[in-house]
Amino acid sequence: MKPRVGHIQFINCFPLFYGLIEKKFLLEIELIKGNPTDLNRMLAGNLLDLAPIPSIAYARNYRDYVLMPDISVSCDGEVKSIYLFSRLPIERLHNKKIALTNISRTSQALLRILMARCYNIAPEYFQSAPELGAMLMEADAALLIGDDALRARYKTRDRLYIYDLGQEWKNFTGLPMVFAVWAIRRDFAHNHRDELKLIRDTFTDSIKFSLECIQDCAAKASQWEDFSADYLVEYFNSLRFDFDPRKQEGLLQYYKEAKNQGIIDEVPPLEIIDL
Amino acid sequence: MKPRVGHIQFINCFPLFYGLIEKKFLLEIELIKGNPTDLNRMLAGNLLDLAPIPSIAYARNYRDYVLMPDISVSCDGEVKSIYLFSRLPIERLHNKKIALTNISRTSQALLRILMARCYNIAPEYFQSAPELGAMLMEADAALLIGDDALRARYKTRDRLYIYDLGQEWKNFTGLPMVFAVWAIRRDFAHNHRDELKLIRDTFTDSIKFSLECIQDCAAKASQWEDFSADYLVEYFNSLRFDFDPRKQEGLLQYYKEAKNQGIIDEVPPLEIIDL
User: Fold this and answer.
1) Does the domain at residues A82-173 carry the CATH identifier 3.30.565.10?
2) Partners of B261 in the beta sheet?
């Protein structure tokens, strides 16, 4: 059976997809698309062999998984797709209501960490469907991620304070932030080392290819979206797809902070398979 | 939004997929895989814009759809993947039990037509999961289709009588048999003529490409399957992917026979969109 590989159907993973098409790699793997939360559930249920999952999900299920080397969805400063949109300067959000997109636990945790640790303030959080207008009817600020955040940033003409959580994390820790990691089911990993090596090589080659012809890649991504190609070039350039030691350090720091906030029970080891 | 296009995840549609990968067409459409019955349900539920669906499903829902020209899954004689496996010669199956794969209504109807009209016999039919061994524990004959039928034909060493329903239909009518047609939602068809033209052109080019390099295509298809490449070359060569006037005639003849057997209420018009 072909390896069953999850794929995040957000624009942030388009450079990977674009390269996989170029390399005709969908003849070698079964690529199953979904949002990170769905992929996490499918991986846990053995409907996938490996998948990008939210960083926080790895912390909660690490015993069942090992990590793919050399690939992640990260940033090192601005991420341009995880924003707090606020009617007030962030310092004045103490005791105010913040609506959190209900599709990301990793970013929710990141916001809580930053609020508690950088700004020393305690807003009142509640979860909401990711629609900025509706969120700001009920709250003073709203957290959006992914395509929702990109769109809101691109379209919103309201006078809002906008905070990029990748940049906030960088200011706080000096480190990159890792949003998603590629987790491999432990049982699969032990019996499919050759396939995993091929997948790792093709994934890193695919991203390299797309970043080398980033204008073409962005033009194709913009074809069915509301964004200009130029905007997507900027966006893709702000993302990081590798998983080098600094990314790993950033991820462990995030886990430590999340544990201190009581969001996860323990800091998981980063068990990266050696391919 | 990219056109949402269904794809039959059977080996019989691999030549189409292989060509789509070669032409990098998955950057232009959202390809959603499934079996024909699932695709039919998703198309009806507006989760897809167009999809290959079983011929019998088109007859039941034709008011909502128009047909894509120039493409079908058909045969003109042997189909090599729709078999009746029988312990007895077919003429002796009167009043005997026949287990029918529960994943195909089109082939079930075809078998009923052939039994009634060619052999003038009335077996007792019941539906079953598509597993030959289990089916033949409870029945004297079993109908399998698609990959199940291919596998059973390839592996079975039992002494069984094997009837190819494509060939039986050809013997009976002199006509091709059409198993699946590409149906387009009527609302989508009227507003997306340019996309549909591109899809039609790319689909027919893709199949042409794959049949021209059929050894490579079959080798790739056999990589994750139990079949040899040579077996798949033979199989692909027995299939027909066009939808010429003879195929249309065969399809209408099938609908007439199905109506006479009380399987469908009316013979639907073949409303093929002019692209």
Assistant:
1) no
2) none
A220 vs B27: CB contact, 8 Å cut-off? Answer: yes
The interface predicted TM-score (ipTM) is: 0.83
Same fold, A4-74+177-260 and A82-173: yes
The answer to whether the beta carbons of residues A146 and A13 sit under 8 Å apart is no
What is the per-residue pLDDT across B256-265, written as a single tens digit (0 to 9) for each?
Answer: 999 999 999 9
Predicted pLDDT of residue B209: 98
Is the pLDDT score of A86 beyond 80? yes
pLDDT of residue A110: 97
Residue B125 — pLDDT band, cuts 50, 70, 90? very high
* pLDDT at A125 (0 to 100): 97
Output the CA torsion sign for A2, A221, A248, A53. Answer: negative
Q: Which of B2, B21, B24 sits opposite A27 (nearest CB)?
A: B21
- The answer to whether the CB of A247 falls within 8 A of the CB of A176 is yes
* Alpha-carbon span B187 to B182, nearest angstrom: 15
Number of C-alpha atoms within 13 angstroms, CB side, residue B202? 20
pLDDT in tens, B25-78: 999 999 999 988 899 999 999 999 999 999 999 999 999 999 999 999 999 999
Element (H or E) spanning A162, and its range? strand A161-164
Å between B237 CA and nearest CA of chain A = 21
∠ Cα A65 A66 A70 (to 5°): 140
Q: For residue B2, give the nearest of A1, A18, A224 by CB distance.
A: A224
Domain range list for chain B: 4-74+177-260, 82-173
Could you say which of B1, B18, B224 has the minimum Cβ distance to residue A1? B224
8 Å CB contact of A26 and B24: no
Write out the E strands in chain B: 4-8, 30-34, 50-54, 65-75, 82-86, 97-101, 124-128, 141-145, 161-164, 177-185, 239-240
Is the pLDDT reported for residue B155 higher than 90?
A: no
**Chain A residue at shortest CA distance from B1:** A224
Tokens describing residue A30: 């079964």
Partners of residue A33 on adjacent β-strands: A7
3-state secondary structure of A25: helix
Query: What pLDDT does A156 receive?
Result: 74
How high does pLDDT run on average in chain A? 95
Report the alpha-carbon distance of residue A168 to residue A110 in Å, rounded: 10
Fold of A4-74+177-260: D-Maltodextrin-Binding Protein; domain 2 (3.40.190)
